[in-house]
# Entry
Amino acid sequence: MRVRITATDPQAMSAATVVYSSFVDTQRIRAAHDDFNGNGLTDLWFFYPPAGLWKAAYDGGQHADLFFGEQTSWPVPGDYDGEGVVDPAVYDQASGLWLALLSGSGYACASAILGGPGYSPVPGDYDGDGLIDPAVYDQASGLWLARISGNAYLIETAMLGGDGYSAVPGDYDGDGKTDPAVYHPESGWWLALISGSAYALDGMQFGGAEFTPVPGDYDGDGKTDLAVYWAPGNRWWLRSSYSGQVRQSSFGTSAGRGIPVPGYYDYDAQCDPATVHLDDDFIVWCVDCSQAGYCGHSYQISQDRWRVHW
# Structure
């Protein structure tokens, strides 16, 4: 396992093997507040599996490189120690090993075992104590497992989903706890176990075939909103948890090329639609900030150069 900070890449990156930002597979497409420097904004970043390389860019022109992980690692960043800064972390699906570099302990490496083959990572603050808990979801059976930080990291379980449902955890009732939730890509059904209602099951149909779930707090009321993205037409549908109204917008890159990476790219506490895509030698982010409007950012692979415009 590599744990090394450097400014020099050990090998040339191939655009075909770069894993973008919050995207690892469909389980990881969700609103993410990946704030590595603690300034309150979601940062631009990606993970390059062959070298275990993380690259991140912050507003103000700063950027950082980190070697942490292996070819088979899934990046699962989160605030695992409650210091208000997102910690680099990786999950190995073959072994179920989690490793995190804790910012509050001088980036010392902490570890846990949870999951394994067939289990996708779904980290979140499931007990509301301000610390991200390691958690996994088995799409075949619908079994959720979480190591709860507020309960000495003992494992707690839940059953929800299975049969093709993708995990879309979020705080759907605004009580500060991550709720287990799933989305069916064919029917468009969302199901959630609501923590503030004794984990009662709630459901709604929103989306369907060809739609990607992109939940996030788009209206700033503290609750995760149902949202979907249609890549062929670069269209977003956002359902406000506060008003129940659905807002549509056309935003993104060339039709069919963008991967949605919504996040909190400005300071108004509203989730912003965003996409990332490959354009020859460039990784390009397109962000629709709720305060500043559209902005574009890029990283040039061959030149190892960021072009960030906030």
Notes: Residues 1-11, 20-30 have pLDDT under 50 and may be disordered. The first strand starts at residue 2 and ends at 4. The CA atoms of residues 133 and 195 lie 15 Å apart. The chain has no helices and 26 strands.
